[in-house]
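Long-time lurker, first post. I've been practising inverse folding by hand and with some scripts of my own, and I keep getting stuck on stretches where the structure tokens seem ambiguous. Below is the full token string for one chain I'm working on. Before anyone asks, I'm not after the true native sequence, just a reasonable design that respects the backbone. If someone could post their per-position residues I'd love to compare against what I wrote down in my notebook.
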């Protein structure tokens, strides 16, 4: 049986985390050539390159990215084991662990609101959040490396055969902008959006598709200034006065308070949906059950 050399993995992990051999050498108190040798042996074990050099910078390969993800979890568990043994708690019980994937287009503040109840559980739960593209997260879910995934659409294609989408809720859509633009667009909304500067989510999101259908139905064509996968970046651009944005109404409060935007209008004809995707039709993990019930009964009620 072939065994993984965790010493080699530690050197690789440190280089990836520190961003290069020099900083890793300083952290580990080991020479750079020695670290390079250990990483080379790990690459020989895998039969794949973990880094590629671009100029003076070491960049992770696709295999390196995957290895780093595993290494993060391995050393996180190792640190947890060490802390548990050292603390010598009366029950000597390891905290329940729940690992949730969050699709990068999922609203960040809403993600936190959905996951927040887990942080207050007693006995405590160790929550791990991983962000990424839907297809990558669903692949990790299929390999049982995630307990659930927060996404804005149910699983499709191949993933649909071995994962299950649980609808957390739907939300109407609100439009907002800085005060001067909002004041102008409120007059005759939603027709006022025609030709107005718009900051929209990218075409691969369900919200964008829903917006396009609604715009077409009411005969409106905004002037698209920019498109964003990152909702926070889109809100920053709106706060800087570059255009109006469309957000799920459940996340409107963040726009009004944190970004100082004003509401232009709302529509029930355009909606955004939110799902919790699991590997099983029935949700058995108590923390995942809590997440689902909290979202369905409080956030989307």
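-- Answer (accepted) --
I ran through it position by position. Result:
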């Amino acid at each position: 049986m072939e065994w993984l050399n965790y010493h080699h993995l530690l050197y690789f992990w440190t280089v990836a985390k520190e961003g290069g051999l020099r900083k890793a050498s300083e952290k580990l108190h080991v020479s750079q050539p020695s670290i390079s040798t250990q990483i080379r042996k790990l690459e020989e074990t895998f039969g794949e390159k973990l880094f590629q050099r671009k100029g003076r910078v070491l960049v992770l390969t696709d295999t390196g990215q995957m290895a780093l993800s595993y290494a993060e979890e391995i050393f996180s568990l190792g640190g947890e084991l060490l802390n548990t043994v050292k603390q010598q708690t009366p029950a000597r019980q390891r905290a329940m662990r729940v690992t949730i994937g969050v699709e990068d287009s999922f609203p960040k503040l809403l993600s936190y609101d959905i996951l927040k109840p887990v942080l207050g559980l007693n006995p405590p739960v160790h929550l791990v959040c991983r962000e990424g593209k839907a297809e990558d997260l669903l692949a990790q879910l299929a390999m049982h490396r995630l307990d659930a995934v927060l996404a804005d659409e149910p699983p499709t294609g191949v993933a649909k055969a071995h994962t299950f989408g649980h609808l957390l809720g739907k939300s109407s859509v609100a439009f907002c902008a800085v005060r001067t633009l909002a004041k102008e667009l409120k007059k005759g909304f939603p027709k006022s959006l025609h030709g107005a500067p718009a900051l929209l989510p990218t075409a691969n999101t369900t919200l964008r598709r829903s917006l396009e259908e609604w715009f077409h139905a009411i005969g409106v064509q905004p002037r698209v200034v920019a498109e964003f996968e990152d909702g926070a970046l889109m809100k920053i651009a709106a706060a800087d006065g570059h255009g109006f944005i469309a957000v799920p109404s459940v996340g409107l409060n963040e726009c009004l308070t944190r970004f100082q935007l004003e509401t232009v209008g709302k529509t029930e004809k355009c909606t955004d949906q939110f799902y919790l995707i699991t590997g099983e039709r029935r949700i058995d993990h108590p923390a995942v059950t809590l997440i689902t019930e909290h979202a369905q009964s409080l956030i989307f009620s």
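A couple of notes from the structure itself: The chain has eleven helices and ten strands. The CA atoms of residues 133 and 176 lie 27 Å apart. Happy to go over any region you disagree with.
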